[in-house]
Amino acid sequence: MASWKSEKSAAGVGNDYYAVPNTFELNGQDTPLAAPPRRRPAKRPRHPCAMMCGLAVLALLLGLGAGPYVDRQLRRDTRSVDDIFGNWGKPGTGTEGIAWYPTDFMRDVIPVPCHSHNDYWRKVPFFSAIHAGCIGVEADVWLRNGDLLVGHDTAALQRNRTFQSLYINPIVEVLERSNPSTEFYNENRRGVFDTDPDQTLILLVDLKTGGAETWPWVVRQLQPLREKGWLSYFEDGKIHKRQVTVVGTGNTPFDQIIANSTYRDTFFDAPLDKLENSAYNSTNSYYASVSFWDTIGNVWFRGEPSEDQLAKIRAQIREAHARGLHARYWELPPWPIHTRNRIWQILVEEGIDLLNVDDLDAATKGDWSKGSFFPRRRDIGR
Ligand SMILES: *[C@@H]1O[C@H](CO)[C@@H](O)[C@H](O)[C@H]1NC(C)=O
Ligand SMILES: *[C@@H]1O[C@H](CO)[C@@H](O)[C@H](O)[C@H]1NC(C)=O
Ligand SMILES: *[C@@H]1O[C@H](CO)[C@@H](O)[C@H](O)[C@H]1NC(C)=O
C-alpha cells in the first residue's frame, strides 16, 4: 500500500501518483490512494437509481436557480489542465506545431508560487505547468545515447522525449512569441507570463545520471536560451534576473556550478536542512530544498505538524531566507486531502516560497486554503 511517501515509490505506483488529486477534485472527498487510474474512469452507476436520481437532483438544482453554480462546477470538473491538452498535437487540431500558441492562451494566467513536479507525466509538460500558472517546472534528465532524455525512471524514457524537445524548444518558442519584433515592440524583456512579464520561470533540472558527465550536457543544451539573453545569471557579485532561471538538483555537481567564480548562469538547489555554516547563498543557489518526509516527518496521524515540527519548519525557512534562497519542500503528504491542504496552507503561512505539486488544478485554484489566501501575486522570482 502506498504511504504518502509517494515520491519515492512513484516508479512503482505511477498511476496512483498523479491520479489521486484528480479524484479528489471530482468527488470533493478523500479517496484511497490505491484506487484511481489516471484518466477519470467512466462513471459506472453502482445502483440503477444512481444515475436517474443524480439527474433528478440536477434538474431540481437547475430549477431552483442554481444553474450558474452547477454549470461552473461542471465546467470546472471537465476542464482539468490535462484535458485542455487532450488533443494536443493531433493532426487536424491545429496544434501540431507551437504555432497555435496564442498570447491569449496565457492571458488570464496568473503566476502562482507552485512548482510542477514530475510534470513530464502530462501530455505537454511545460505548457501544462505554465498554463496552470506554476512558475516552476521540473525535468528529470538522464544521459542516454548521447542525449538528455526526460522521464521519471528508465522505463519512461523515449528517444523523442528529450530535454531539448520537451523543455528548451517550447520555452524558446514561447519567449520568441512574447518578445516579437514589430513596429511597436522591439525589446527582449518579457517572460512567459502575460499577466506578470517580469516573473522568471524556474527550470529545475534533476540529474538522474552521474553529475560529472551529465551536467556539461545540460549547460550546453541551454545555449539557445543563453544566446538570447534569457537566462538569469550571476556576474560581478550581482544576480541579474532574466526570463528563465535554471536550477540543478539531484546529482548536480555543486563544484561545477561554482567553477567560474565571476560568472554563472545556472544555480544550485541547496539542502534546506544543511544550510548552517554552508557556502550556499543566492550567488550560487536558488532553491533550498529537502524532503518534507525525511526532515519533518510524519504528520499523518495528527493531520498537521506538532509544535516541534513547526519550529523546525520555521527555522529552516528562516535560514533559507537569510541567505537569499527560496525554500521548498518535496515529498509533501499528498493524502488524505485535508492533510495535504492543511500542510500547503501552513507552509504558505510560514513563508514557503514554492509548493511542490502534482495536482496543478487543485494547487492553482486556491480553494484548498480556506481562510488563508494563496499569495497569488507574490513575486518570488527575485
Ligand atoms: C515519440 O515516439 C513514440 C514512439 O515512436 C510515439 O508514439 C510518440 O507519439 C512520439 N511522441 C512525440 C511527442 O513525438
Ligand atoms: C567565466 O565566465 C566568463 C563568461 O563566460 C568568461 O568570460 C570567463 O573567462 C570565465 N572565467 C573562467 C576562469 O573560466
Ligand atoms: C556567498 O557564498 C560565497 C561562497 O561561500 C562567498 O564567497 C560569498 O561571499 C557569499 N556572498 C554573499 C553575498 O553572502
From TrEMBL:
GO MF term set: phosphoric diester hydrolase activity
Alphabetized UniProt keyword annotations: Membrane, Transmembrane, Transmembrane helix
Residue ranges crossing the lipid bilayer per the database entry: 49-70
SUPFAM superfamilies in the cross-refs: PLC-like phosphodiesterases
Keyword hit for Transmembrane helix: yes
Protein family according to the UniProt entry: Belongs to the AIM6 family.
Entry protein name: Altered inheritance of mitochondria protein 6
Originating organism: Echria macrotheca
